[in-house]
Amino acid sequence: MIRFDPISDVPRSRVVWVTLVALLVALFIAGLVFVAAGTNPLEAYSTMLRGTVADWSGWSEVLRRAAPLLLIGVGLTLAIRAQFFNIGGEGQLLLGAVAAGGVALFTPIAPALMMVAMFVGGALAGGLWALLAAFLRVRLRVNEILSTLMLNYVAASLVVYLINGPWKGEKVRGFIYTDDFPAYAQLPTLGDTQVGWPTLVLGAALAVALQWFLGRSTGGFELRVVGENAAAARYAGISVASVIYRMALITGGAAGLAGVGEVAGIHHKLLEPGQISSGYGFTAVIVAWLARGNPALCLVTAPLMGIILAGGDVLKINMNLPFRITDVFSGVMLMCLIASEVFVKNRVRWGR
Amino acid sequence: MDELINALLRALAFGTPLLLASLGAVINERAGVVNLGVEGMMALGALAGFAVAYGDGTPGSGNLWLGILAAALAGGLAALLHAFVTITLRANQFVSGLSLTLLGLGVAGLLGKRYEGLPLTGQPPQWPFTVGAIVLAGLLAFWLSSTRAGLTLRSVGENPAAADVLGLNVGAVRYGAVAFGGALAGLAGAYLSLVYRPSWTDGMTNGLGWIAVALVIFVGWNPLRAIFGSVFFGLLYYLQFRLQGKTFIPTEVFSAMPYLLVIVVLGVAGLRGQQGAAPESLGRPYTRGER
Amino acid sequence: MTPDLTSVPVLELRGVTKRFPGVVANDNVNLSLFAGEVLALLGENGAGKSTVISVMYGLQRPDEGQVLVNGQAVTIASPASALKLGIGLVPQHPMLVARHTVAENLALGHQLPGQGSGLFPARRVAGRIRELSQRYGLNVDPNARVSQLSPGEKQRVEILRSLLRGVQVLILDEPTSVLTPQEVQGLFQVMRELKRGGKSLIFISHKLGEVLEITDRVTVLRRGKVTGNAPTAGASRRSLAEMMVGRTVSFDRKRQTPSELSPSELSPSELSPSNLDTAPVRLSLRGLSALSSRGLPALRGVNLDLRAGEIVGVAGVAGNGQSELIEVLSGLCPLQSGRIELDGEAHASGARHIFESGVAHIPEDRIHMGTVPSMSVAENLALRDYARAPLARAGVRDLGAQASRAREEVTAYEISTPGVDTPSRSLSGGNIQKIILARELRGQARLILAAHPTYGLDIGATEQVHAALLSAAERGASVLLVSEDLDELLALSDRIAVMYHGELLGPYSAEQATREGLGLLMAGGEANSDGLPHGAGPGDLVESAGASL
User: Fold this and answer.
1) pLDDT at residue B290 tops 60
2) Which residue in A67, A62, A138, A91 sits closest to A251, CA to CA?
């Protein structure tokens, strides 16, 4: 029998090495899946690394994915701190993209204000989408994992409906996407890469701001109390509902910003959900979990997961593996991380 | 009249995998363990069932019945991973189940690629699955309420400390219940890939697993009521196919319908205070000494 | 039947030592239990009683020493093996499945001899339950749901569970703490019946009167060691208390109502009344009703006038609305109807406004409501005013101000902690309660709501809590003190009220109140024309207990 003896004050070094071991175990298990699929795992991993971190073009692919991961992940750290398991980053991102598309294509906003309007609209749309789940949880005790996940499917249907129906581009004929955004509604990228540096900068700023928010603001204090002990929060006169609502707006809003960045920076139009986001919402859960709820740490964990996502793409192209490969990585890494938690907080002893 | 009977039969056909999967989830939840990995376990079951039934493609190389067994086994083994992580390592049950879904979908997609689009010769009849699932619901209801083992399982889900003190092995009961839940999810997957639509495609579970999870709450953790819950959702699916393209309503509304309905159903369950019927220690890892 | 002390003990501990990190919970404990006797295991909170129980019931294994059953050394690895050896426990907090019936609970993990079938376990035990209930006077309906039983009935289910398994030794862990004095008499009746049937009982308590009444011998524990062993017959309250506490104990009232004080002792503050009868009414409650968290009526028309500088105690069996009363007053539970006035003004609404209007709340669940265990001592001390100057300005917290104030309060309240940044979860219960006291009493509260403020604390922390409440009352604060400890209520209160079935009976002058009179009210008895019923004789008590059970 395994026995766990709790450690009352966990040293930081223990957190680091247990997490590293968990990631290694995850890579090992994913390797077993490669073997089962008839692929040499070492070859797969080296292909992934060569295609991502070996040169600038690889890094640009990593950073392209790190930008949305950073924004969503930073927002999700607040959700984790408030014990609100928001799995709906994907849907919130799509809503942000929809809002950006709507603003860019159908509103008569002055070009100078267009980008601001798109970001504000995207943040609002994503935030309200998350707020819906928060409301259901607070008022009707609907499990937020289920509701945010279901809202992902609904958001995807909404996008398909729009690009296939009322918003379908006039010049695209057989394809289903909208017309291109006007030039002033497009975000610049880094050189000739697809790295949306404005979103990257926005993500970094948000990471720093939210780190400060958690540690130094009264709102952050309230959020931590609510997450750690909701009964104590009520006792102290903190409104649990309003803290959860505010958190949902920030967390969904950040994902909405990521959606704006994707469509305004890379695609310049609204297109099929699977092309707007390659599972950023799910992968960002791992970004936030790896950062242990610290927004600033996402500056490290987002590029790390960016390597996994970009590497998955490399495998798809170079080794002809299906896109599900990134689900395998996400699933295994998330499971190993949550399983490692007990080893972070306890010393293990064998025996009675 | 014929239309009505036809609708009901189609609803039963569509509701069968929902019933199987939600019966499994009722059992592991009554033992106190939530498993949100149903979707992933179904995908694995669908693939394992198809792979064994298909063999190498030559007639006689596959075996339907072994395929069904393999599906249950695959679902059960995947569930044991969840059991290890949440029962032995006490990790968060909700997040573990979610990662099991990602993992199951991913592994099935990766390994199933070679079966994509292949036809299955010889298809088992549907009715034994449907009738079997309904009979199983009755048996499980009786087992839970009127047998010693059922009493033990319920007690472990309500108050594991009380069961532990009396010498009952809480961990073993929970492992067993989770494995059983996984096996039924695997069977539900096999029904999809062998009976309902005898072929393998990536993503063929299409969110059914999530609906099964929501159904458990909707039917108040009651196996008998799960029959009616799954027929209800089956009927909705039938209507979706029946009405698609024949009304002014866009198709996307129909494809989003099941997911919206899950939210509505959970909301209604919340309004009626149904979460109060949840097993007392549902979702909470048990540690001796933390009473 | 008088126990034979020369025979082989049915249960014996020899030199049992059990260490936990930082404490020796049991230090060379020797204890024998003979057939047909009731042994008291007496000691304060933290004296090591629960460790002794854990060792005897297989929840903990001793580091050193032996356990013997009928003279044979045994290893008790689990409660299941304890039950096999004939040792049963009636835990202080019932270990039952609330949603299941009594019969289902008793059938759990238990197979009656000769019944191999796995079907209908509950139906099969029902007959046996009725038979045992009749033999020992344990009246329980096998088909009742446990969630609907009273604490006393749950206790009887636990006793039945042990009897069904044919135990010879029954350990009762603080069995009277949840009972009215009348129910206690009913329990004692059952215990005598069991003793007559040849069972041996261990009665754990820190209540001296009960020990003197029901037990044959007493073993006293203090700080993990056995400090005394005596037949009950020759013992007195004072001698037992001295063994238990290790010094002379006074049983006097701690609270001197202002009328008892000489003028020179009166505080100069004008809030402190010279006579409570003429002091202004601080808190006035009229017709309060409220629902419990389960949506059932919990308060049914509560009326009370609490005067400035007065301590009113609230007695009652748990679950009669005390928690809801405190939560309504502190803004945690919505009021259905009725009116609350504080110093003549309508009560503020919402927990924060109520606290800021001068109402302190020492909550019942000090760990899960009173503190955030994973947060630091400093942050827990700031839980009420983190958003106010000097701790914060315009939403920005001043961590330096928070830490320096925390350091002052840690010193002032003698909170023993490695530092103000230590998570409060690593502190002892007494120190956690001191954090709450420091935080709640900081603002010179007008009204203090104290729910079970000393439950589970050692004697040092208990005295500190009592002193804090008394000095607050002396400076003019009003205190509403909810407790299940009648001794505490009698020692501290000016007046005592009883909560029964959502109604507040009284309050009655504490000087005239008796345990028996309060007990009758706690059990739903009628108040007589003088208000408080007079103490009834023991015989009457048994009868009324029987009727109310």
Assistant:
1) no
2) A91
Q: Which of B151, B161, B165 sits opposite C107 (nearest CB)?
A: B151
- Residues paired with C523 in a beta bridge: none
The C-alpha atoms of residue C467 and residue C474 are separated, in whole angstroms, by 10
Residue C95 touches partner B, C-beta closer than 8 Å: yes
Domains and CATH numbers, chain C: 1-86+167-251 (3.40.50.300), 95-165 (no CATH), 258-358+443-513 (3.40.50.300), 375-439 (no CATH)
- The span from the CA of A1 to the CA of A102, in Å, is 59
CA distance B206 to C471: 68
Helix (H), strand (E), coil (C) string for C325-389: HHHHHHCCCCCCEEEEEECCEECCCCHHHHHHCCEEEECCCCCCCCCCCCCEHHHHHCCCCCCCC
Q: Apex CA C352: angle with CA C347 and CA C354, to 5°? A: 20
Beta-carbon separation of C383 and A232 below 8 A: yes
Q: Which two tokens stand for residue B234?
A: 């089956």
User: What average pLDDT score do residues B242-254 get?
Assistant: 80
Q: Is the dihedral of CA A159, A164, A168, A171 positive or negative?
A: positive
- The answer to whether A335 contacts B111, with C-beta atoms less than 8 Å apart, is no
Contact indicator for A10, A350 with CB cutoff of 8 Å: no
Q: E strands, chain A, where?
A: 2-6, 346-350
pLDDT of C542 reads 29
E strand or H helix at B30? helix B2-30
Joined tokens for residue C237: 């309250």
Q: Which of C370, C391, C373 is nearest to C382 (CA)?
A: C391
Contact A225 C372 (CB under 8 A): yes
> What mean pLDDT value characterizes chain B?
91
Q: Is the ipTM of this complex over 0.95?
A: no
In angstroms, the CA C440 to CA A130 distance is 37
CA–CA separation, C175 vs C187, rounded Å? 9
DSSP C231-283: EGGG--HHHHHHHHHSS----S-S---GGGS-GGGS-S-TTS-SSTTTSPEEE
Under an 8 A CB cutoff, do A324 and B106 touch?
yes
Q: Copy the structure tokens of residue B287.
A: 């540690």
User: What strand order describes the sheet that includes C311-315?
Assistant: C359-362, C447-451, C478-482, C311-315, C495-500, C503-509
Supply the DSSP string of C39-74, one letter for each residue: EEEE--TTSSHHHHHHHHTTSS--SEEEEEETTEEE
H, E, C per residue of C65-99: EEEEECCEEECCCCHHHHHHCCEEEECCCCCCCCC
Element (H, E) at C507: strand C503-509
Position A130 confidence tier, pLDDT thresholds 50, 70, 90: very high
The CATH code belonging to domain B2-116+123-277 is 1.10.3470
Determine contact: C401 vs chain A, CB below 8 A: no
C184 Cβ contact partners less than 8 Å away, ≥ 6 residues apart:
C176, C210, C545
Pairing, β C311-315 against β C345-346? unpaired
Domain residue ranges in chain A: 67-299
Question: Which chains touch B (3+ CB pairs under 8 A)?
Answer: A, C
Position C246 scores a pLDDT of 66
Size of chain B in residues: 291
- Give me the residue label for tokens 């019923």: C533
Query: Could A236 and C373 be called an inter-chain contact, meaning their C-beta atoms sit closer than 8 Å?
Result: no
pLDDT tens digits for B105-123? 999 999 999 899 888 877 8
Chain A residue nearest residue B209, CA to CA:
A146
SS3 for C397? Answer: strand
Q: How far apart are CA B140 and CA B86, in angstroms?
A: 24
Cβ atoms of B163 and B288 closer than 8 Å: no
Strands C297-307, C281-291: pairing is antiparallel
Mean pLDDT of chain A: 93
Q: Which chain C residues in 228-287 lie under 8 Å from chain A, judged by CB atoms?
A: none
